[in-house]
Write a structure and sequence with these properties.
This protein is mostly beta strands and 556 residues long. The chain has helices at residues 12-26, 32-36, 39-56, 205-208, and strands at residues 3-5, 69-73, 76-80, 82-86, 89-100, 103-113, 118-127, 132-141, 144-153, 161-171, 176-186, 189-200, 218-223, 226-236, 243-253, 259-268, 271-280, 285-292, 295-300, 305-311, 314-316, 319-330, 335-347, 349-353, 356-369, 374-387, 391-401, 415-424, 427-434, 439-450, 453-463, 478-488, 496-506, 511-522, 526-535, 546-555. A hairpin with a 3-residue loop joins strand 26 and strand 27. It comes from Meiothermus taiwanensis WR-220.
């Protein structure tokens, strides 16, 4: 058994402060100018008190490796201000700690049994890269921490968002944490209960709860009415293996058409399902998807689309074959119902040499209906890339249909489009030309990054873009919009604020096209977002001149 003793005696800050104050008093003249410096002794006293406080009580705990007594164990480095031995039992106290891969543990007392190789401690505090937690008691053996009476949080201070658990098992090597009989609380309000919840100490809490992003699944905004409710709120089963999501949302409340949306979705290996119901004044509507490979069912009552059938993909290298068969209805296409069967064949070829990359993906679709008609479509996608000192991409998409398809499932819309992009440092250029519509769209973005954020400008243009109507009722043929904005750096400090403004100007109509402002505030546990954006001159056919108030919440 080997241990080391480190003597931590550093009073240089206190000595330098005392010397400065003594020298200042000896050199202070009794003149009016000297009286102006009468505040210096007070400042000196404050500095002396501050340095003495910093010397006596460090702002952060002493690292375990710098404790007076340390001991290398198979479970990690144990240390403390005092070390005693009781046979094979090593007892650390006065700032006892354990430093190992993936965690830092502190406790009033730490006991290491050299015979069994087990570490035990009461009232432990543990820190990982993502979490902090406290436990009534814990033991470490085989690089696995077992603890009971758990309170765990992702908050940087306090624990307004926390998990309460009866038992915890933490594999420090893999980072996997299993909580037994746990519940999730926010501001002491219970949100969910879990029999067994799996976390990863190195990943965000949102991923473990089934959230794709750090955004909390609460929607609260105003867009032609109040939108309020839960969107895809995750509900885990006892094993945490099947993610069920619940949607309960009120849309356009006190607006032109209030809607109540109820939805549920779930996913498991090889299976997924999603169903939504809308209750509104014009009548109920529903949409859904159920897939259990190779069987699927789709429906959308608003579009009058329904389908039930089979489809499955077979792959061999870059070649993929996807046979299909279904019975479907598509009222939006003027076809009441029918049968369809066929297959789609694709081949994916990718070649890379240094910074150059080329991709070619041709396809062909052959389908038959229960009518004397067949469907044939073919086309592909070709793309070349260069990624070196700058990034350049050039792609071409084409598709040709022999006859229009009956259903949206097998259709491959006819198109011939050339697209490209270029980026160098903070310059980004994107452009697309549709040969069938003789339409060109382009956008140029310039950024000016600083330590506090990025100031940017983006010019959006479109030629021969029919669809947006002028005030006199005629279609326009060109769009030119300049959008200026500022994107601050992500909030990293607690109790910090940031503002994200943007402003758009339409050169054709010579007026403000859009504007918005978002306020972000970071507390110990969350980032709160409140914003307003308004479209004054629509730039796309799906845009409606309207104001929108948004509220969001993100887990830190």
């Amino acid at each position: 058994m080997e241990y080391t003793k480190n003597k931590l005696q550093d009073s240089r800050i206190l000595s330098l402060t005392l010397a400065f104050c003594i020298g200042l008093k000896a050199s202070s003249p009794s003149t009016p100018q000297g009286r102006k410096a009468g505040l210096l002794p007070l400042l000196c006293a404050l500095a002396l008190g501050w340095s003495g406080l910093a010397w006596a009580s460090p702002a952060s705990p002493t690292p375990c490796a710098e404790q007076p007594y340390t001991l290398e164990t198979p479970e990690g480095l144990a240390g403390g201000g005092n070390l005693e031995f009781d046979g094979d039992l090593a007892i650390f106290s006065d700032g006892a700690c354990l430093q190992t891969q993936g965690l830092s543990l502190r406790a009033p007392e730490l006991r290491y049994d050299q015979a069994s190789g087990e570490l035990t401690a009461p009232q432990i505090e543990v820190e990982t890269p993502r979490y902090r937690f406290w436990a009534e008691a814990g033991q470490v053996k085989g690089r696995v921490l077992q603890a009971r009476g758990i309170r765990i949080t992702t908050c940087r201070c306090g624990d307004d968002l926390r998990l309460i658990s009866e038992h915890l098992s933490f594999d420090t090597q893999s980072g996997e944490v299993i909580l037994q009989e746990s519940r999730l609380e926010a501001y002491q309000l219970g949100l969910a209960q879990f029999e067994a919840l799996r976390l990863n100490a190195n990943r965000p809490l949102g991923e473990s709860l089934g959230l794709d992003t750090l955004a909390f699944p609460l929607r609260f905004d105003f867009d032609q009415g109040l939108n309020l409710g839960l969107v895809d709120f995750p509900l885990l089963d006892a094993e945490g293996r099947f993610s069920t999501r619940l949607t309960l949302l009120g849309l356009q409340l006190w607006g032109p058409e209030p809607t109540l949306r109820l939805g549920v979705s779930g996913q498991a290996p090889g299976r997924r399902a999603r169903i939504e119901f809308d209750l509104k004044q014009s009548g109920p509507a529903s949409r859904g998807e159920v897939v259990a490979d190779p069987v699927f069912f789709l429906h959308d009552s608003t579009l009058g689309r329904h389908a039930f059938g089979l489809r499955h993909s077979f792959t061999l290298g870059g070649l993929s074959l996807r046979p299909y068969a279904w019975v479907a209805q598509d009222l939006s296409n003027g076809v009441s119902a029918g049968l369809a069967a066929g297959a789609e064949l694709r081949y994916n070829l990718e070649v890379q040499e240094g910074p150059f990359r080329f991709r070619l993906e041709p396809f062909g679709v052959l389908g038959f209906y229960n009518q004397p008609q067949q469907y044939l479509a073919y086309g592909g996608y070709a793309e070349g890339r260069y990624e070196g000192a700058f990034a350049l991409r050039l792609g071409y998409t084409w598709a040709i249909e022999s006859t229009p398809g009956h259903f949206w499932l097998e259709r491959r819309e006819a198109t011939q489009a050339l697209s490209g992009s270029f980026s160098y440092q903070n310059i980004q250029l994107e452009a697309t030309h549709n040969f069938l519509l003789d339409q060109t769209q382009a956008s140029l973005r310039l950024g000016y990054p600083q330590s506090y954020g990025e100031i940017w400008a983006q010019l959006n243009t479109c030629w021969n873009c029919v669809g947006k109507t002028l005030s006199n009722g005629r279609d326009d043929w060109e769009r030119r919009e300049l959008v200026l904005g500022f994107t601050p750096v992500p909030l990293s400090c607690t109790y910090d604020l940031s503002l994200t403004p943007f402003l758009g100007y339409d050169f054709l109509r010579q007026g403000v096209s859009r504007w918005g402002l978002e306020l972000r505030y970071a507390d110990c546990c969350f980032i709160w977002r409140l914003g307003y954006q308004e479209v004054r001159i629509a730039q796309h056919p799906d845009e409606i001149p309207n104001g929108k108030l948004t509220f969001g919440l993100e887990i830190r």
